[in-house]
Amino acid sequence: MRFVYVMDPMDRVLPDKDTTFAFQRAAQLRGHVSLHAEPQDVYVDSGEVHARVRPVVVADSAPFFAYGPAEDVRLADVEAVFIRKDPPFESSYLYLTLMLERARGRTEILNDPRGLRDANEKLYALHFARHMPRTLVTSSPDRIHAFVKALGGRGVIKPLDGAGGAGVFLLAEGDKNIRGIVETVTGEGKRLAMVQEYLPAVEQGDKRILLLDGEVLGAINRVPRSDDLRSNIHVGGRVEPCEVTAEEQRIITDIAPRLRADGLVFVGLDVIGGKLTEVNVTSPTGIQELSRHRGEDMAAKVIQWVERKTDGYRPSLRSNPGI
Ligand SMILES: Nc1ncnc2c1ncn2[C@@H]1O[C@H](COP(=O)(O)OP(=O)(O)O)[C@@H](O)[C@H]1O
Ligand SMILES: [Mg+2]
Fold first, then answer.
1. Contact at 8 Å (CB) between 288 and 220?
2. For residue 237, what is the domain's CATH number?
3. What is the CATH number for 143?
4. Which residues line ligand 1 (CB under 6 A)?
5. How many structural domains compose the chain?
6. Tag placement on the chain: N or C end, fewer CB within 10 Å?
7. Is 84 contained in some domain?
């Protein structure tokens, strides 16, 4: 099978951490071809979405990957398209999802471009607000300060388009930086931010639960450095093995039908102290750490799922544009 990966350049990928790299390696081991494209390589010609791709072969030792010669492919002609571009979700990402719709229903697209467009990672979680800590979304500094006071003096502020812990701060009433932080994150009251109740359980870790088609693939716990609020691996969070609790499983069971309906197949939930804080859908990570804990290649499970799904895309469907 041929799989197209729309993603950042391969030389930005960390071979021992990156989840897309793990997908490519697992797919290659199962005999599939990986085709690499960046968002700007995707184009529409006469209503058909194509991409200028380069075959990529990955390896476990340096230089870790090699590109083959570029070619043009019609996306409906490949078995699957993985949208794995890292955030932020800006206008080029928006256009990418709109163009990929031309192949929707004719090839397996992970995650569904419509679902991606609908699901801002921070705001999507609000569909399940009953499982979240107290949360406010606003651009108003006054409203934020009042909310932090109502929370008892502590909160966490985050930009709506951030990832990897970027722009996430602890807000503490009385801290002489609080006004400056709120001003910066909200762009002096012009940009929306999310403010949440501070969950002290974060010191024990922020659990990343990876879901495949609404089912638990596995989880890893990310423990922040003692001098940081943020648990993200990218900023030095330490990864340890963990299991999904019965309480967390209840949250997942509640969320899964909505994720399935939105075509959000490969998803990373962030859970702190049993509370849902974020639903990562654009390019969730963590599969390599999970595989190491399990002693089993969990990326292969995702590839196997795709193999099963693509059986359903018959050639007749592929040649029929505009579904
Ligand atoms: N409500 C919260 N209480 C305590 N810590 C939090 C809270 N929300 C986020 N954090 C910390 O900040 C980190 C990043 O926040 P998150 O909402 O997951 O955004 P990002 O998209 O940057 O990962 C988390 O891993 C966690 O360590
Ligand atoms: Mg997160």
1. no
2. 3.30.470.20
3. 3.30.1490.20
4. 133, 156, 158, 162-166, 168, 196-199, 202, 206, 224, 229-232, 270, 272, 277-278
5. 3
6. C
7. yes
Task: Tell me the three state secondary structure of residue 80.
Answer: strand
3-class secondary-structure state, position 2? strand
- Looking at every residue in the chain, the average pLDDT score rounds to 96
* Segment 187-217, tens digit of pLDDT: 999 999 999 999 999 999 999 999 999 999 9
248 in a structural domain: yes
The pLDDT of 124-133, averaged and rounded, is 97
Q: What is the bridge-based pairing of β-strands 80-83 and 154-159?
A: unpaired
CA–CA distance, 107 with 124 (Å, rounded to integer): 25
**CB-based contacts of 183: which residues, under 8 Å, 6+ apart?**
141, 189
* pLDDT one-digit tens code per residue, 14-37: 999 999 999 999 999 999 999 999
Domain with 167 in it? 134-198
87: left (phi over 0), alpha (psi -120 to 50) or beta: beta
Tokens of 143: 């409203």
Q: Which of 84, 106, 122, 275 is catalytic?
A: 122
Token pair in block for residue 159? 């930009």
Tens of pLDDT along 300-319?
999 999 999 987 676 656 66
Report the alpha-carbon distance of residue 172 to residue 82 in Å, rounded.
40
The per-residue pLDDT for range 140-170, each reduced to its tens digit, is 999 999 999 999 999 999 999 999 999 999 9
Give the Å distance between the CA of 207 and the centre of ligand 1. 10
Evaluate whether residue 318 is within a structural domain.
no
- Residue 302 domain-assigned (yes or no): no
Instruction: Name the domain boundary from 167, 182, 198.
Output: 198
Using DSSP's 3-state secondary structure scheme, residue 10 falls into helix
